[in-house]
What does this fold into?
Amino acid sequence: MGYQSVSENSHLLSRIAAGDGHGENSSYFDGWKAYDSNPFHPVSNPGGVIQMGLAENLLCLDLIKEWIKEHPEASICTEEGLNYFEAVANFQDYHGLPSFRQALARFMGKARGGRVSFNPDSIVMSGGGTGAQETLAFCLADPGDAFLVPTPYYPAFDRDFCWRTGVRLLPINCFSSNNFKLTKAALESAYETARKNNIGVKGVLMTNPSNPLGTTMDRDTLKTLLTFVNQKRIHLVCDEVFSGSVFNQADFLSVCELLDEEPSYDKSLIHIAYSLSKDLGLPGFRVGVIYSYNDTVVKCARRMSSFGLVSSQTQHLLSHMLNDDDFTSKYLAENKRRLHTRHEEFTSGLEKFGINCLPSTAGLFVWMDLRQFLKENTENAELKLWRVIIDDVKLNVSPGSSFRCTEPGWFRVCFANMDDATMHVALKRIGDFADKVKDETTQLQQKKRFNKKLRLSFCRINDGGITQHLMSPHLQSPRSPLVKASH
Amino acid sequence: MVVKVYKPCVPLSAIATSSTHGEDSPYFAGWRAYDEDPYDATTNPSGVIQMGLAENQVSFDLLEKYLEEHQEVSKLVNGIGGFRENALFQDYHGLNSFRKAMASFMEEIRGGKVKFDSNRIVLTAGATAANELLTFIIANPGDALLVPTPYYPGFDRDLRWRTGVNIIPVNCNSSNKFQITKQALEEAYAKAKKADLQVKGLLMTNPSNPLGTAMTRPVLEEILNFISSKNMHLISDEIYSGSVFSSEEFISIAEILEERGYADAQRVHIVYSLSKDLGLPGFRVGAIYSYNDAVVTTARRMSSFTLVSSQTQKMLSPMLSDVTFTKNYIKTNRERLKRRYNYVVERLRECGIECLHGNAGLFCWMNLKPLLEEATTDGELKLWETILKDLKLDISPGSSCHCTEPGWFRVCFANMSIETLDVALSRFTSFMEKRRKT
It folds into this structure.
């Protein structure tokens, strides 16, 4: 059905609507579009694009499915659960079902090895992690204010934190030289830059475990951060959405654990964003959580949760599931184990091809180092390489520039959203690509050596200059002729 | 014990510290009184009866029966096939089947008089989110929306709080049964202009909350002409469309648009929800239907902050697509609400209380002007307190709905059993008898 479109009415939309704060023009989403138009399927489309740009956890859905089957009373549409239907369907209190809040508090405590205890009364619902971030921004900052965020960071923060709120995100730059760890110097520098530009900094937004790095913050870094926000008297929003997806190490250290360590630490500055989309693999159920140590923020966020409450049907189901201690213990342990196995397989597979990833112990992805394949050390070169990976290698991975990484050549590659067979197909494709590049680089270098001899014979007079140029690191890094060949 | 004193930190946002959340209104104070002392037939027969909550509990049995008889729904939701896909499904387009089901249901409610294209439906977690989202899209901070009074108190929060948009009331009064007039529209518009506010749209509720009346054709035509002439948007909140007592009496803005060949339709956006007609407020199912492509696209992107749970979409799709079921549900629900409404109005009339003649909704608009000590907002609030403290009835004072005429109250009747309703009505009867004696 088409309607008369009156062109002069296009100005009738708000600035928020007319702008591109929705972020969908980012390269992060371009790869998804390529996948959508040619999705891999082992039988019907084995040559299609494999989706490695979506941080989803499919590895333990069988455990959840099994639990639901064994507990029909937790679903309001089964025979066993139907007697709950009316009460649940009618329940729209923005405090949420008490049993649901208790279940969430228990689960979150368990994911932190029982070392943190969460108060169910400080738990507030939101429309997924997306809604949690936006609500916190609305509570803590005014339009024009800024939060500092370590790079690289999850691209959708620009939409979640900034789009409708008018709040800004300013980068705290991190570098591979120290494995992208957050430093005091970087924090101070970012803060100072904001101050010089007359921008009011209201807080720091961090993700721990990190997306896209897959690393967890160590004790020193967390303490540096806590000291910093306390000194500046600003807020700390910690997105711990991957807290239940930590593997390959004893335990995850949450910022919550350190709050009592120093008398100077003011708890009322600390706010946690969480969701069940990653750890439980249930993004469709839209379960976001805000946990704040600040009662005023809890109250305000709770009122705002009216704009994004969790379906009572879902609250009912999950309150049963997450209050089942046996199940949650088993689930968290098994999730760790399967993620660890998958991570090991994937990274060791990559290592065989000479591709390294940042050492990581958490998350649903790796931070892959493809700097060796870059034609030049620029964002453009990274995007060109990325297009090759999508169009020729047929993998949707996410380029580091979409995460505002300061250094070109890094890519986030998700590994938990597919089965083993698909992962092996992806590895094979990467391996083939790496081999091809090596062959072509070798050929190109041979060709260059030949050309070099020719050039030198013409340029004996300017010998010093030319030789210097030929010896620059720029020319000695292998080039990907596939970049030139790309359409 | 050492009390830690910290230096002041950066303040919370202006939004956080404002009171535009609206919870200080008597509308919510009554809810709190109820929470502290809720009526229960056996354990607390003298407790407060909640008549301030517009919920529909008269037709749950129909829904439960459907689910009981269609156990394949539970298999669909929990799993033989498709659990994984559903658990992962976070596409802001929503499940195709669910959007189609919503379109079908909305068409059924309108007696098949209009067609809805499911591709124009954007899902949100409740109408609360839908109204806020549309406001973000059509207005900038500092702009204004016109809203006819009396209106749902929650609009003060939904339309203004986080958006920074203003509401300019379009005042209606009992002289013409609170209908919206051209004059009232022009007056409101002029007021906005004088205050240097840009009016970006009109938001109306049809059928009206709190009046319980469906808008007439001439008024709808007038409104469409007005918004076109002033180059603004129109949001038609039709969340009570399935609760009009007789289907002939509800005219959706969609019908008028169709009759006009959809001229200027891209200004119009309809809001719907399953919270009232189906009595499912807990499930958070709201929808925006827009005739404007840019609004549909933007609304869809914004719905990322407020998506409907995929398992809820899955559970409700079969039921809402089942035309046999929906036809019967809509007809039965209407009949039951009509019966209740007539019963309440009759009982109130018997003890000397009149209501506005209504034909829709889950409440009646009660006229207690004769009981006011003084015809002012203060007088009204005094009476409201008396009713809350002495009669133990939580009803909503008209002033909380921005009614300019003191003495009107919204009284909900569909959120309780008939036995509880009888208790509430007898409390009114006793109160009026006592007054007559003194």
